[in-house]
UniProtKB/TrEMBL annotation:
SUPFAM superfamilies for this protein: alpha/beta-Hydrolases
Signal sequence, start to end: 1-24
Protein name: Alpha/beta hydrolase
Pfam families, sorted: Hydrolase_4
All residue ranges annotated as the Serine aminopeptidase S33 domain in the record: 64-269
Amino acid sequence: MYFLSKNILLCCALTLSGCGSAYAQVTYFADILGHGFKQATIVQPSDYEGSVTCTVIKKQTPEKSDKAVLYVHGFNDYFFQEEMAERFIEEGYNFYAVDLRKYGRSYLANQKFNNVRDLSEYFADIDTVLTIIKNEGSDKILLSGHSTGGLILSLYAAEQNGKEMFDAILLNSPFFDLNVKSVLKKTAIPVIVKRAEKHPETTISAGLSPLYGESLHKDAHGEWTYNLGWKPHIAPPVNFGWIRAIHMGQLKLSQGLQINKPVLVLHSAKSIEEKKWSEVMFTGDAVLNVEEIAKQAQNIVGQYSIQAVQGGMHDLILSRKPVREEVYSTIFNWAKRNVK
């Protein structure tokens, strides 16, 4: 009831609709994070599940700046990384994040969490927030995407050639390949993709271990606090439509994506496959195959660099402090050269 009532309240207060159009004014409310963060719910055109919204979250620099970063979260996720936001603000970036449709702050009662049938559905949310950022005075924009958000931004950037509203792209452990055994990629995935054309709502387990979530959350073994209703340790089942959307997006990447802006791809130096809890969970990527990330990243056509991070977890900026300090150093040194 909390999620539903909050979104209805904000949707009623904010009569914005459409995608990619210019907004004269956006009405912000205090965000759930507090500490000066603000949010606004944007009403988007309805889809196959009914009403749709996305949510922009922001915190601006104390001194006026014409630079901004837009952060796009991953699967089974939403924006909660305050430390990351503060680090960008310290570097002179107005910070913006978007909770994509059917995730986190944007989830509505008529929806299935994380549901999507084509990753291009998210492009309207990105267009909307980029337009808002431009209208609010930031002309130099860094796009930053984690995991599924990294795949989405890569596809989005390739679609924007010649009409970009951004200057560079940072990809944090992008979801460039399904982390399943090769035999399943050749047998089960094609069957699911075909069936998804007529039965997209058929569900299947996401197959993710709860250990990664437990390595992050303060109530388990981690150091971070976030809403377990929006980012549970065990992800909700996905449906065939979701699998097809991811597969088709990754297929496009494998065929080559022309991106005309600089791209930085960061990933952990190793993948880990722990069956029970251990400190090893803090030393590698427990979600994706990092070798495949590096391999598939080479299908980007344009100016890109790929860097492995020793000791990095799946979400690199949630790694242990010495590691994430290295990650921030890498990001901001690269950004100084590419966001001007």
